[in-house]
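Reposting from the mailing list since nobody answered there.

I have sequence plus structure tokens for a pair of proteins and want to know whether others read the tokens the same way I do. The first protein:
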Amino acid sequence: MSDLPRSSYDKALALNLDSSIYGTFAEIGAGQEVANWFFRASASAGTVAKTISAYDMKISDALYGKGERYVSKSRVVDMVNYEYELLEERLGESRGSESRFFSFANTVKARGYQDSGECHGWLAVRFQEQFFKESGTILLHVRLLDEENVDQMEALGILGVNLIWAAYHHSRDLSAFVSSLIDFLSVERVEIDMLTFSGAPFAMVDNRICALELVRQGVTPATVFMPDGEVVQAAEVFYKTPLLLLRGSFLPVTNLHLDMLTQAGEVFPNKGVSEKARPCREVCEVSLSNLLRDGEVDLVSFLDRANTLQALGKVVMISNAPEFHRVAAMLRLYTREPVGMVLSIGLLNELFKEKWSENLAGGILESFGRLFKTGIALLVYPWRSRNGGELVTADNFRAPDGLRHLYQHFFENGMIQSIACGNEELLEMTGRQIMANASDRKEWKKWVPEEARSLVESHAHS
């Protein structure tokens, strides 16, 4: 065998031949697709202590406890913990000195008969890196993008093998770990939109960096974490939730940003909310391009901005989708409730430039068509003209020649809405000006919330 496996079969065989790795497989909802790889390879007795497929809900509940949903994070965590603890209880004394135990679990909804719904699943592996050491758990969520059930099952099996392989070979190298997850797959077949490490071996791991790495490698277009820093699966936390999304670099977070969300919240959501909707969430989205320094992601700056936004109680979204219509499409995967995208006059003007639609056959008409077709509204915050000092709002905004009637159509039909400015003094300095002046002028602090001042000061002295 070469050092670099050339197939999933090679990975499964190499794991089987490693006599120190021994564990169990528990798979519900989409067959024994992962365990099957280890049986197809030779020497499976060296790895597989047990496999189980608890399809019947009552049997599943008897083993892992009753759950409200069977394809969920809580269910896969219960599964992987139950199986791991049972394995140690039964084999710890007899095999503990020669085995690094693991349990693998998944719960998946794959394509069913006459089924066109979302296909996705949760995978987890709890394992020992070293003999007699405490175990750690790696958890991920995947969207299965193939149309046919047989292709989804194949992708699931490959992904499971990749997860176990990466756990034992790349758990201390995040970049290699994420890359290994999609070996022999493609982002057209699977989207991994959540990845977390937990347990004593990973006590120093910041899962927000894991979320960022998924976006950086193009494994998912966006990841989300909460004000407490918990990385979450967007579809779970945004389900039936109206959203107010503010896009920006947030370098730094300013009082202007906070006022934009406050003013937008005064007019949104004003219609279309269902009776069972959750409370509206404010989401601050940072594009990957805004985190680059000399072509590389600036992790320190990323964590500074994330910490600031979280301290202010905001949900943070990291994306690699600069086009507004792509972000709108992502949000519509998560919720059918009203969505408002908050932006400045300057960014509204940018949307009418050709660069945002140059890859679309229908040009700017297709770009706006994709953006507005799902009922998303643009909530536009005013700005003061640098030339004549005029306050420019969505009401008096002048679209480029040839597009003014198009803009008027959007405005009159509520697709673009004007929001107020709570304090026009906030319009006097941009974020760039604040950062440029922070080293020698103290008055910048009145434009920046207290939670963000340390970020400004650290950049001023860097």
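The second protein, same order (residues first, tokens after):
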Amino acid sequence: MTPQQYVQERAARSGSSFYYAFLFLPPRRRAAITAFYAFCREVDDVVDEARDPGVAATKLAWWVAEVQSAFGGRPTHPVMQALMPLADEFGIEQRHLQAVIEGCQMDLQQTRYLDFPGLARYCHLVAGVVGEVASGIFGRTEPATIDYAHRLGLAMQLTNIIRDVGDDARRGRIYLPMNELAHFGVKAEEILRREQPWGYSERFDALMRHQAARAHATFDEALARLPDGDRRTQKPGLMMAHIYRTLLREIEASGFQVLHQRISLTPLRKLWIAARTQWRDR
């Protein structure tokens, strides 16, 4: 299997909303975003799949060294072998990849966030930086597009956090700010136990409506910051924004039933949203 085949299979296997946006890109841009996304999946899965935090920390340390070696001209992992020939062309820098790894390292060191500013720092590393790199691959010409990309990355990560409350609880993690849990009278133990009726209550509903309102506001802020000059090239990001916002609305419509299940959109629906975005305003 070639490095290019490896990253393609990695991206397709994930079933992520990102994959559907990639399909509409020209070949070289598609190759670059696919390789970068495969990198993000590799390091993120280190944390999600490792049962021993020590083993996960060792693997992430290996990735730190691998990124350094790759930018020194010596990539060994197929993801880095696929990514490096495209890095200069699309402005992918070592600092971007190291930031993503740093965010994953935070997952090993921290399972709670006291307040939203602390959570936002984590989101910047695992999503804002990803948005910045992606916007460069899609075709960024306006400096203000970087700000848009960071805000969009934050909005999508906030949606992920809302969707994954139950999954994260099973791993002993809570990404909802602790001071906001306290404000709405929700105890961390209620979320972590996930006991029937799954910890749902008016208090939990109010907490989650607050999270969703912030995510919606962040989507609005991101879209308002996208310069008109880059709107056409940034359509893949807009596809992801529409997919994620549709997901957020589905979660709201369910009454935030996220403790016992993982709400998702079907592949066909994701593809339809992506295609509709592609053809809109042509």
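Reply #1 (J.P.):
I read it the same way you do. The domain at 1-109 is CATH 1.10.600.10 (Farnesyl Diphosphate Synthase).
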